[in-house]
């Protein structure tokens, strides 16, 4: 191969590497803010390897990521490259189309992570090209799509994105047979769990967890907004003196129950400010999870964190409604067959019936190990 032919190829390879590095920066930026029910989006404006500005979508109704980055760059954006994790919008919503701002800024290139999965007005990238802007699509696409998986499910399937979270021993137990579970994991892992709550719109447990653990289900170890606290309680067994029944403007509680629940219990919980919603139950008296999720969707819950217990985890897995699993494994063994497992579902005779994770990630959190990933369909 001649030197003349290699030079453009090397230049193209170098540009591709820069594009991937800048998109990784945009993906990190996208994790900031609380834009629910809108998607997390991040943007970077750069000239070569030099970052000019960054931006993210801070909250629903606020400026979009590319508009924030362009505003910070000002005239320096002219001739530069805009990296954005999601295709710029081309429609009027709470804010004007981002394509307008991109074209007006004078950027020379736009690099996108993935297309908008629920685009209202298609043609954003085509419009940019017609304006003479070079558009490069699908850089780090798997990561970009994963970052908006919650928004995709919420918009297209009209259901929240469900993450099952638990801390387990090496032999897969979330509690001793007495129900004691404090504390399986380290303080570092518990801080991570609170960060997950802060990044979720709602956190859900079953009535058994409320009775055994009396959890607050609030964000305490990190800064962040408080999620809606949700309890699955068919017969309204939630203790009136439990922490979940202490309601304030910041700490709201929603309890789902079945038809026929005690009227006296209803009135007592309502008097404490708890919101009650009746949903369908099956022939075994268990709440129909799809009905629960649809009610949460109506309340703009995009990301739902499920914190157990065992039967609740099992029910979400068996129903096919769980999307993501995050399990902290602590270096201890209960060695008791009567201890509480991570999930209790239908009997499985073969390993092929096990639930699997797609491309799981593994990392240390203090002395513990976090394993997480999408649940295979």
Could you characterize what this model shows?
This protein is of the alpha/beta class and 377 residues long. The radius of gyration is 24 Å and the shape is globular. The longest helix is centred in the first third of the chain and has 28 residues, at 3-30. It has helices at 3-30, 65-73, 98-105, 124-130, 141-147, 149-156, 187-198, 207-213, 263-271, 289-298, 310-319, and strands at 42-47, 50-56, 81-86, 109-114, 134-136, 161-168, 173-175, 202-206, 228-232, 253-257, 275-278, 303-306, 324-329, 340-341, 357-365, 368-375. The strands form three sheets. Strands 11-10-9-8-12-6-13-16-15 form a nine-stranded mixed sheet. It is built from eleven helices and 16 strands. The mean pLDDT is 92.
Would you kindly provide a brief summary of this structure?
It is built from eleven helices and 16 strands.
Largest sheet: 9 strands, mixed
The helix content is 25-40%
Task: Summarize the helix and strand pattern as letters.
Answer: HEEHEHEHEHHEEHEHEEHEHEHEEEE
Q: What's the total number of strands?
A: 16
Give the overall form: globular
End-to-end separation in angstroms reads 46 Å
Strand portion: 15-25%
Name the poorly predicted regions. none
| Global Rg | 24 Å
Mean pLDDT: 92
Biggest sheet, spatial arrangement of strands: 11-10-9-8-12-6-13-16-15
Given helix and strand content, the structural type is: alpha/beta
Number of helices: 11
